[in-house]
Amino acid sequence: MSYIVPIRLVFVYLLTCLLTITGSAQIPHSLDSLMIFLRTAPTDSLYLKAQTDATFQLIYKRADYSRADSLARQQIGLAQRLALWPSFVKGHTNRATAAYLKGDYQQALSYFQQALQAAEQHPVPPAVRYQALGNVATGYDRLNQPEKTMEAALRAVKWQEQNQIKPRFPTPHRLIGGALVKMGRMQQALPYYQQAGEIFRELNDPRGIAIFENQLGDLYNELKQPNRALSHYQQCLKMAREMNFDLLQVDALSNLARTYLILNQPATGVPLAKQSLALAEKQKNDLAIAYSNGHLGRLYAALSKDAEAEAYLKKAITLISKQADPTDTKIYTQALADLYAKQQRFKDAYAFELQRTRLIDSTATVRTNTEVQRLLTHYETEKKEARIRLLEKEKQFQAEATARAELKTNAMLVVTVLLLLLSIAVGAWLINRGRLRRLEDAQKIRKQIAHDLHDEIGSTLSSISLLSGMVNGLIDQNRPETAQRMIQKIYTDARQILEAMDEIIWTINPGNDSLQQLALRLQAYARPLIESQGTQLAFTIDPSVNNVPMSMDVRRHLYLIGKEAINNLAKYANATEATVRFSRVGNQLQVQIEDNGQGFDPNQPSSRTGQQSMQERAKAIGGQLAVESAPGQGTRLNLTVGNT
Question: Cα–Cα distance between 351 and 368 in angstroms, integer?
Answer without folding.
Answer: 26
